[in-house]
Specification:
Length: 319
């Protein structure tokens, strides 16, 4: 392969330029630019480069999109309407994920749900306002989610994402290997951005809202809005009315039995050991751990009704 960039500074400048194109609402030209550079590597025989050139946004499916309306309605019960959705690549090392025997790895995705905060009123912010909320190392809303789970899953880019993950050691390497890693990573991030945009266009959103695609410590660390609330207004699809969950009918009382003799001390059950109680507690998911860090106060959502999360795992680190 042939080197494309003249050192680390040139690679960093290119990464920033691609991210800026995404922030300005130009993901298609961003992908064209990345692939033009990839073709200059003359590395089509490299599996990672080949996957970065061949994978199309149309190959990618966002599983769980149809469940967003129900999820928003559930979270709204806490009294703070969800006004922004974040879909983030999360570094696979957070959950110990590695490519399989074929080198494939599905991205691990965090789905973040945001309400308006003093620093950012997503419900009224246009793209320019959202862009002012991005900081050098994150954003004004970093960690301010109302909830986080793994509702959205990505299918169709496992060969590319697995190859990028397997070549992570080349991130700071000069020459063709480092260039190939940067460009392939950029391609995967732009493709996720495009896949989210296409899902909005094809399936719509249950409400007008900002949709952001970002990264939780996963190179190339892109963070950019896909749509602002005003840009999303033309893609709102009213969800079908959700059936009310009826209270279960009372269970008939069993026939009366003759009163039993009081239990003797030997018949009474011994108190459960504290260690047994702890062992019976469910293992917290990675999303649970990040939620506890960012929001130490318990959620006002009634715990008895809380829906199970899909795909939660241990090991998330806070951004």
């Amino acid at each position: 392969m042939n080197a494309v960039f003249d050192g680390a500074d040139a690679r960093a400048d290119f990464r920033k330029s691609v991210e800026q194109m995404l922030r300005n609402g130009r993901p298609d030209p961003a992908l064209v630019l990345v692939r033009r550079k990839l073709s200059q590597l003359s590395g089509e025989s490299d599996p990672m480069v080949a996957a970065a050139l061949e994978t199309q946004a149309g190959d990618i499916t966002l599983v769980g999109w149809d469940d967003l309306a129900e999820r928003f309605a559930w979270l709204d019960k806490a009294g703070k309407p969800i006004t922004a959705l974040g879909i983030d690549f999360s570094w696979p090392g957070h959950v110990g994920a590695e490519p399989d025997a074929e080198g494939h790895l599905a991205p691990y995705i965090e789905t973040n749900y945001y309400a308006d905060i003093p620093e950012m009123a997503f419900s009224s912010a246009d793209r320019e306002t959202l862009l002012r909320g991005y900081l050098a190392g994150g954003s004004e809303w970093q960690g301010c989610f109302e909830d986080i789970d793994n509702l959205i899953e990505v299918e169709g880019m496992s060969p590319l994402y697995g190859a990028v993950t397997a070549n992570a050691s080349n991130r700071n390497r000069d020459g063709a290997e480092g260039d190939a890693y940067l460009l392939s990573s950029c391609a995967s991030a732009v493709l996720l951005h495009l896949a989210v945009r296409d899902a909005i266009r094809a399936k719509g959103l249950p409400r007008a809202m900002a949709v952001l695609v970002g990264s939780n410590e996963d190179f190339p660390f892109f963070d950019a809005p896909v749509v602002s609330v005003d840009e999303s207004a033309g893609h709102v699809v009213e969800p079908p009315p959700m059936a009310e969950v009826e209270a279960p009918a009372p269970t008939p009382a069993p026939p009366s039995e003759p009163e039993a003799e009081p239990a003797t001390p030997a018949q009474k059950q011994a108190p459960q050991d504290a260690g047994d109680s702890k062992a019976a507690e469910p293992v917290p998911t990675g999303a649970d751990l990040r939620r506890r860090i960012a929001q130490p106060e318990p959620s006002p959502t009634p715990s008895k009704e809380e829906k199970p999360r899909r795909g939660g795992l241990l090991g998330f680190l806070f951004r």
